[in-house]
Amino acid sequence: MAHDAKERAVWKVRLTRWVDALPPLVSRPVGKLVNEVTFGILSSGSLRQSDIARALKEPMRLHHTQKRLSRMLARHSEVAWAAETLQLEQMGPRVHAGMVLAIDPGDLNRNGAPKSEYRGRVRDGDRGEIVGGYPLLSVVARDVKRGQSLPLLTRLLSSERAAHRSENHEILGVMEQVERHLDTRPLWVIDRGGDRGRLWAAWLAADRAVLVRAANQRYWLWRDSPRTAQQIARHLPLKHTGRLRRGSDKTVRFGITQVCLREHPEQPLWMVVVRHGKREPLVLVTNRPVRGRRQGEWLIQAYLDRWACEEGYRFSKQGFALEGVPARRFATLQNLVALASLAWALLAAYQHQCESLIRHARRQKDRRRPDFPFYSLLAGWQRLFAAAGHIFYHWWRRPQPDAAPSPIDDLFAHAPDLTPVAT
Fold first, then answer.
1. Is the same domain home to 233 and 299?
2. Helix spans in 45-187 (H)
3. How many domains does the chain have?
4. Is residue 295 located within the same domain as residue 218?
5. Is pLDDT of 316 > 60?
6. Which of 177, 191, 341, 407 has its CA 20 to 30 A from that of 234?
7. DSSP designation for 280
8. Which residue from 239, 254, 248 is spatially nearest to 297, judged by alpha carbons?
9. Is residue 418 part of a domain?
10. Do 287 and 357 lie in a common domain?
């Protein structure tokens, strides 16, 4: 038990030091809110404000703690901005040249909450249906060689807000914001949703390295003739052999050729066509020069490793129960999404020093470290703090010394006893 108390103190100090690095414009009460809610998300595995309040274990009525958190999350919309800035400042220096950045639009299904503020229409990726909800945008850094994932940002959007312009504008804005906190020029990886003319024009103008899966909805200039991606894939000879994933024994055939956009014929692009046993070949397009089998194989593995972004959405929805939040205010939902991403980043930053959390999780049947360890780390955090008696209440609210007696109390203290005596 004493060892567990030391472990709890170490994690509380780590979290508090993270929050101390918030931007200086953030007030102290907001900083304390970020600390408490991030801890509550990790300890409860939920974004419900009642569960977060229960995890704080304050010596007062649960209703009062929940009401305070709800009021501050709804009023302070700057919490999301502060959490995103803190997360980028903490995780940005950990991104090196061997990593790729996976950016992926997602969705938050709020079909069961019709009174949610600024709720729009989105496509549910799990069901394939159009439902009421909000778009999500997530960026995850992925080390293809080591299999390590680092969350950089997750943002909740709404097309019903007056300040919203377009999804293309949001994607380009997030890319620019992330790159300001990096020391390297990354390769951005995006799925078929990124094969858009306006995005290509902006990427080529900014000389930003991207890898996009072709959606087969446009014509490419190939050998002086316009053809679709699948037409090129049918006629391109596949001269190379490589592995789909690093360390896997499964090999595939792929080919490399040079193409151009019809709108930008002066800008050369490289297309990688992979035949992997499915009905249609996998077609990837990049503006980074691809010379030889090794570079082509690395790009294929980099694209397939973008699953870390989708796994991050699944972790937020299942590990933190994102779709079960009963809040209606858009500011509250946006703050909770940003703080959930910050909580995930805290686990990712110390994932190689979390043997104690994995031991507390008691979920692994063998000693092999999981490819996506954050479910085990979250379960270990919850088991570690389940036996804690108190969390942060006595850190920030130290007991006041006994107050000196007031002059009125002194007068009554020295007054004569006028109680009648029975005879």
1. yes
2. 49-56, 62-75, 78-91, 167-179
3. 2
4. yes
5. yes
6. 191
7. S
8. 254
9. no
10. no
Q: How far apart are CA 378 and CA 343, in angstroms?
A: 10
Q: What is the extent of the structural domain holding 266?
A: 213-304
Look at residues 316, 354, 318, 360 and name the one whose alpha carbon lies nearest to residue 338: 316
Rg (CA), the chain: 27
Report yes or no on 162 lying in a domain.
no
Residue 338 lies in a domain: yes
Sign of CA dihedral 46, 153, 149, 36: negative
The verdict on residue 60 lying in a domain is: yes
Q: Which residues pair with 241 in a beta bridge?
A: 253
Residue type, 11: W
| Phi, psi values for residue 142, rounded to 5° | -125, 125
Q: Are residues 292 and 344 in the same domain?
A: no
Question: In sequence order, what are the residues at sequence separation of 6 or more whose Cβ sits closer than 8 angstroms to the Cβ of residue 48?
Answer: 321, 324, 325, 326
Neighbours of 75 (CB within 10 A): 13
Average pLDDT over residues 331-340: 95
pTM strictly above 0.85: yes
Q: What percent of the chain has pLDDT over 70?
A: 90
- Say whether 211 sits in a helix, a strand or coil: strand
Helix 330-349 vs helix 2-20: angle between axes, to the nearest 10 degrees?
Answer: 120
